[in-house]
Write a structure and sequence with these properties.
By secondary structure, the chain is an alpha/beta fold. It is built from 18 helices and 29 strands. Helix content is about 30%, strand content about 25%.
Length: about 575
Amino acid sequence: MTSPATSRVGLVAATSAGRRHAAVLADAWPHARLVEAGSAADALRSAWAECDAVVAFLATGAVVRILAPLLGDKHTDPGVVVVDEAARHAVALLGGHAGGANALAAEVAALLDARPVVTTATDAVGLPGLDTLGWPVEGAVAAVSRAILDGAPVRLVADATWPLPALPPNVRADAPVDAHRLLVTDRIVPLDDRTAVLRPPSLVAGVGSSRGVPTAEVTGLLRRALAAADLAPASLRCLASVDLKADEAGIVATAATFGVPLVTRPAAELAAVDVPHPSEVVRAAVGTPSVAEAAALAGGGTLLVAKTASAMATVAVARHAPRGRLAIVGLGPGAADLRTPRAVAELRRAAVVVGLDQYVDQVRDLLRVGTRVLVSGLGAEEERARTAVAEATAGHAVALVGSGDAGVYAMASPALEHADERIDVVGVPGVTAGLAASALLGAPLGHDHVYLSLSDLHTPWEVIARRITAAAEGDLVALLYNPRSRARDWQLGAALKTFAAHRPPDTPVGVVRHASRDGERVHLATLATVDPAAVDMYSVVVVGSSQTRMVGGRMVTPRGYRWRS
């Protein structure tokens, strides 16, 4: 299920209290609505038929009795969350994973200040459900999941290293051959009551056609080609073709039938791909000697099914190597409640976590059992960046963590200098130390501002001094990172002297130490009174502009706009 902000959520209530609670959800979610159709039972049946998810403010037993005759398949039934009359609990009743009810229960609970109740076994013990990994799964899913939960040996057999989340220690490649099996493969394999199969997105099907090709012809040709090579349709990553076919209805509809995107490339790009069966006839028609094979191979695949033709279509299938996954995660300034939900989700999605030891220690309780943790100390930024990229390039799901926002004086830059097209990169923004400090000081960033680091370990002081002068002359509010340490005890004083030459002595200056962490301290001063000796590496210094002033004991920089009435 998608987010409540974009999916259709039916709200069903029988009492005035239930309707009040439903109104809270309807106000928060644009696509949520109270369903009214006669009795509450009729409304519940209507919501079940019409909506992607249902939140029922009814008794659990009543919901079970009403919906039991309507149950079909967990992959198509809507998720159902039940909330009690006092809105104390939000119970994920049906469709916990496939229907999104577990996630929906958490979001309902957050809005109603209730407690989410999730009874799905894997969620309860913090293990990844096989049906939550984002890939098709088939076979003895329940039996293998039960074995994983019970701690029984499960043999992991994968054709390649794919970016799976962390799996518990009992799931391993060297488990006994008679154990339950979890296969990760695009091959069609015999299934039994002890084997589950994850289908990785490894296959690209190249498709060419004459204009007006019927959908059934393309679909049938592709199914036959996959079956002949013992390849699973569920492992299709995409259909690919020349850009002239981007609007070919039969190809577009075939992609929709298989539930994959259609990717098209210019003819000149396909013409540069070396293929086993080029055709001058095809070159004359579309500008490339190959469409199906070239489109399947583009980007570095290995051809498994050579060009196969029907009357109006051609297909070819290539296997592409796994793409590793590198999530660059900003953990925020330190407080757990300033860490974003997306950061938490990426930490739990990762099989490998790389970071500074003290930052990883902040989130160890969030990591799944089996997560491999690679830590190093201060000063090893380059080593951590290279390690994270190397692990992702090897096909793993990696989270590289840093404090604040990983793109601000943190790990994103050194990591992305080494990352190439072999990995997928996910950036997770975080609350910076500067933003946390500014919130504690008031509103010093109400107008233009600049971040400056005073550390001259890697940047010559002459360069830093020019930037300080430019910020002072430009009358910008300045956030000073790395302001002072035992070994660098004069740079902050020099910077403050430069600012004092361009703005009044009563310009507010804020110093925040350990923003949002234990030992947090906020100090307000002015350019004339601030004491650099009270500042250390755990501090952020905010120097106001000439317009910044103190209001009620808080720093405020006016926005300077003329408000329209």
